Amino acid sequence: MLTVLDGKRRYLARKNGMYHIGDFAVLKDLKEGKAKLGTREVYVLRSNLYDYISTIKRKAQIIALKDAAYIIARCGIRSGWRVVEGGAGSGAMSIALLYYTYPDGKVYTYELRDDFAAIAKKNVENAGLQAHWILKKGDIRKDVEERDVDAFILDIPEPWEAVDMAKKALRQSGCIMAYIPTYNQLERVYRKMKSVGFVDLEATEIIKRNILVGDMGTRPDNVEVAHTGFMVFGRKL
Ligand SMILES: C[S@@+](CC[C@H](N)C(=O)[O-])C[C@H]1O[C@@H](n2cnc3c(N)ncnc32)[C@H](O)[C@@H]1O
């Protein structure tokens, strides 16, 4: 998969090495390096996770890339792992999980709503990562069929209601993570994980700040996303 950088705009070249703006194919037979688009020079780069996540079409709020990166590291998610996730939303976290479990792992994503499932499917397919993805219609709080999975990733409004299911589905030492926007939800899911015996608990937030490098001086960007989500982690004993 290739990414085209057209000034500040970033696009995935979706089909047969073509660069698309909307449904309009602009450049054919793309190769890594520089390319001409009319009189403009664009850069063609091999796509990475940053490209996939920053170009997805959003319907639901996504797990931010900075948070997804910590989730991957804290849980140790890697190639060959089997991961259960819910819900699909826009598919951003699914893409991160698929990227790191490739090629031998499996990601099972549970989603209640058809409209979100459809948008997540489109985004995962645009990233070309669908081969080891199983998207299931269902409630992650009660419908999970998989057992001995390596990680259980929750981004739903009531994650505490899925903690018992996670305990059933996870293997020993397997990682649970809940992503929530408010302190009330954080406390509730933390206490629930503790009460059912998850260990190595951590509640955390990642703060990222961009720095503008200018000719006259270098300083933090004055526009910032101040809050995305909190994360609560635990491991099954
Ligand atoms: C905030 S979005 C998830 C965003 C996603 N993590 C991403 O990065 O794009 C929450 C999703 O969870 C789904 N959902 C809510 N409760 C659920 C449940 N009990 N089981 C499965 N999906 C659920 C919603 O329909 C919605 O699509």
From TrEMBL:
Entry's Gene Ontology molecular function annotations: tRNA (adenine(58)-N1)-methyltransferase activity
A single GO cellular-component term on record: tRNA (m1A) methyltransferase complex
CDD domains named among the record's database cross-references: AdoMet_MTases
Record's keyword annotation contains Phosphoprotein: no
Keyword set includes tRNA-binding: no
Alphabetized PROSITE patterns for the sequence: SAM_TRM61 (PS51620)
Domain tRNA (adenine(58)-N(1))-methyltransferase catalytic subunit TRM61 C-terminal: 43-211
Keywords assigned: Methyltransferase, S-adenosyl-L-methionine, Transferase, tRNA processing
GO biological process: tRNA methylation
Binding residues for S-adenosyl-L-methionine: 111, 139, 155
Pfam (any one): GCD14
Record-given protein name: tRNA methyltransferase complex GCD14 subunit
Source organism: Aciduliprofundum boonei (strain DSM 19572 / T469)
